[in-house]
Design a protein that fits this description.
The chain has about 220 residues and is of the alpha/beta class. The protein is built from five helices and 14 strands. β9, α4 and β10 form a beta-alpha-beta unit. Bound molecules: cytidine-5'-monophosphate (C5P). Cytidine-5'-monophosphate binds near residues 92, 98, 128, 144 and 158. In the C-terminal section; belongs to the PPC synthetase family. In the N-terminal section; belongs to the HFCD (homo-oligomeric flavin containing Cys decarboxylase) superfamily.
Length: about 220
């Protein structure tokens, strides 16, 4: 970056999946490598920001200059986000599990030969929507929308419902193992109050750099 366009700013990023335990050996999770969120944290730090990265369980190295907080569950992630406010910019890239099991079995559940166990689910907190409605709402609040159908329409609805400023929509159709998840590239649509920008497919690091440039520009215009 030219200079340090995010110097003096605190950027809070969530990344990776959350793991919701069923018993000591099993969990519920979404597919997520954490690569896009980690790349965003790295780019924000390279742009001079103070960066807090709240990471679910992933196998990725902490980018230079980034303060990392590791969490397992959605509720842990929500607490870590809350504890690390205020932030000037929040980018919620984590693939948070929507549900957890209502109760966690203390011992490993056994196969018994009769009917498989039924899991009773409870809803997890929506971290992005909570921030959107919070007194401590960051000045620029950015969410992701991983969709397989009606990508942009769903992202626009999500932007309104969760009171985010921007939603980064990415098409994750293509089937298990064929998709963006875990891959090195991403094709995104940036949904703002002004409309939709379709970005060409590019490496996740490049998505991150361009996003940070867009953020710096938005803050600059804000300060005028
Ligand atoms: O899961 P969904 O498609 O609604 O996620 C959209 C955005 O909301 C993402 O930015 C995701 O990180 C965020 N989210 C969240 N907490 C949840 C579910 C989603 O912060 N429980």
């Amino acid at each position: 970056f030219d200079g340090a366009p995010l110097a003096g700013r605190h950027v809070l990023v969530t990344a990776g999946p959350t793991h919701e335990p069923i018993d000591p050996v099993r969990y519920i999770a979404n597919r997520s490598s954490g690569k896009q969120g980690f790349a965003i944290a790295a780019a924000a730090a390279a742009a001079g920001a103070r960066v807090t990265l709240v990471a679910g369980p992933v196998e990725l190295a902490t980018p230079p200059g980034v303060t990392r907080v590791d969490v397992q569950t959605a509720r842990d992630m929500a607490a870590a986000v809350r504890e690390n406010l205020p932030a000037d910019i929040a980018i919620m890239a984590a693939a948070v599990a929507d549900w957890r099991t209502r109760d966690v079995a203390e011992s490993k559940m056994k196969k018994r030969g009769d009917a498989p166990p039924a899991l009773e689910l409870a809803e997890n907190p929506d971290i992005l929507a909570t921030l959107g409605a919070s007194d401590a709402r960051p000045g620029l609040l950015i969410g992701f929308a991983a969709e397989t159908d009606d990508v942009v329409e769903n992202a626009q609805a999500k932007r309104a419902r969760k009171k985010a400023d921007w939603i980064i929509a990415n098409d994750v159709s293509g089937g298990v193992g064929q998709s963006v998840m875990g891959g090195a590239h991403n094709t995104i649509h940036l949904v703002t109050e002004d409309g939709v920008e379709d970005w060409p497919q590019m490496p996740k690091e490049e998505v991150a750099m361009r996003l940070v440039e867009r953020i710096a520009l938005a803050l600059e215009n804000d300060d005028d």
